[in-house]
Amino acid sequence: MITPKEIKDKTERKYISFLQSLVGQRAFEKLVIRGNKSYTKSSLAEFEREIQLIHSQSKEKKGFGYSLDFQKVKTKHLGVQDLPISIYFDNEKDFLKFLDKENEVYFFKSNVEIILREFPELREWIIKNPKKVIDNANEWKNILQVCQYFKQNPKPNLYIRELPVKVHTKFIERNKGIIRELLDVLIYEHVNTEEKEFEKRFYLKYAEPQIRFKVLDKKLSDRFFSGINDIAIPVSQFEKLELPIRKVLVVENKTTLYTTLTLPKMEDTIAIFGSGFSVFNLKNVRWFDNLKLLYWGDIDVQGFEILSQFRSYFPQTRSVLMDQQAFQKFFERDTGTPTKISTSLNLTDEEQQLYDILKTNNWRLEQEKIPLEYVNIIFDKVGSNF
Quick check: helix, strand or coil at residue 45? Predict the structure, then answer.
């Protein structure tokens, strides 16, 4: 037979649809909880305990909660007994008090009224997301202020903390999720739907990733950067950079970037810290299109996957020091990080062959472990062809 806990669990599952009915302004209808007509048939005493337990939590006993309708039924083992044939809530008050949700629903109704008074177009969103109205019960005044600002200024082009909205400076940053959902409804015609990041999606300024690079040609660093050769600038500025260079070397790791200035003379060349898969920050640097590009990464599966990614942006990219010779010469039997990538990669036949070996054995050779003397020899050879 159904227990009071099972009744509670089934009643709680009705709660969201009840909230939705409030938004739809539907009157409370008798809410029936489906029971279980089976019973313990080993003894009359056990049967009576089951009945007593379910009865103890009913409205008849507690003054609120579920009501029970009984009917005399002739049972196979215990003779004629009164069995509960219906479990139901007569009214909203009994339902909410049973769930201990009276205060929560009071504030839910109040907040729904406030939201719809400000933005009637959010009704469907509320019906789909009543729990989010409750989860943000104490924040709606501020949330609606933010939404009202964006409604009037759909493309602010300001940093979040510059927005002239009278909320705590970190409020928007802490509540991006809920604000994003609402703005997607309220200013849908002004949303950059291709962007997932909040700032880009709603045309705000943001702290851009930095592109760090080293100028390997002293004449260039003297002419354009007052002799400074280690530079970091925002992506958008790097995309507009105009330098008379012909070659770019992208390295995966920061430590390797430090050593690039010791490479053999590399005229008209800069070295860039790719920072692993963050090479995607370079995908819109279209002045790379007509340059010679080299990629130097770790000899492991991720190194080749990053190479493949970078080559998808710039097909002319060649790899350096990512070959069988370097691997066999300096491999110290280090293990790598297994990959979950199963799609085909944009690699040459030789690169693919080495990638398959690394993937099968989970091997790794970090680029920092290749001695600088050997690196210089290779770059000396590469330099004439690069």
Answer: helix
State the pLDDT at residue 384.
60
d(CA 256, CA 304): 17
Task: Give the residue among 311, 298, 300, 294 at the shortest CA–CA distance from 347.
Answer: 311
Q: Give me the torsion for CA of 204, 164, 134, 126, rounded to 10°.
A: -60
Q: Which two tokens stand for residue 226?
A: 């007052």
Tell me what percent of the chain is helix, strand and coil, each rounded to the nearest 5: 50, 15, 35
**Mean pLDDT of all residues belonging to the chain:** 91
User: Residue 281 and residue 210: Cα distance in Å, rounded?
Assistant: 9
Is 76 domain-assigned?
A: yes
Q: What is the DSSP letter of 307?
A: H
The answer to whether the CB of 20 falls within 8 A of the CB of 132 is no
Question: Would strands 269-273 and 247-251 be described as parallel, antiparallel, or unpaired?
Answer: parallel
3-class DSSP assignment, residue 296? strand
pLDDT in tens, 192-222: 999 999 999 999 998 889 999 999 999 999 9
Domain boundary among 174, 201, 228: 201
The stretches in the chain having pLDDT less than 50 are none
Q: Checking phi first, is residue 307 left (phi over 0); if not, alpha (psi -120 to 50) or beta?
A: alpha
What is d(CA 53, CA 18) in angstroms, rounded to the nearest whole number?
Answer: 27
Q: Are residues 377 and 238 in the same domain?
A: yes
For residue 248, with 0-12 CB atoms within 10 Å meaning exposed, 13-18 middle and 19 or more buried, which class applies? buried
pLDDT at 49: 81
Q: Residue 28 in 3-state DSSP?
A: coil
Please give the distance of CA 177 from its chain centroid, rounded to a whole number.
Answer: 10
Is the distance from CB of 32 to CB of 88 less than 8 angstroms?
yes
In which element (H, E) is residue 51 found?
A: helix 44-56
Domain boundary among 201, 227, 251: 201
**CB atoms < 10 A from the CB of 312, how many?**
13
Residue given tokens 């609606």 in the structure block: 144
Residue 234, phi then psi, degrees to nearest 5? -60, 150
Q: Are residues 82 and 117 in the same domain?
A: no
- Nearest by Cα to 270 from 303, 228, 309: 228
3-state secondary structure of 364: strand
- Report the predicted TM-score, pTM, of the whole model to 2 decimal places: 0.67
Please give the Cα distance from 333 to 363 (Å, whole number): 7
Domain count across the chain: 3
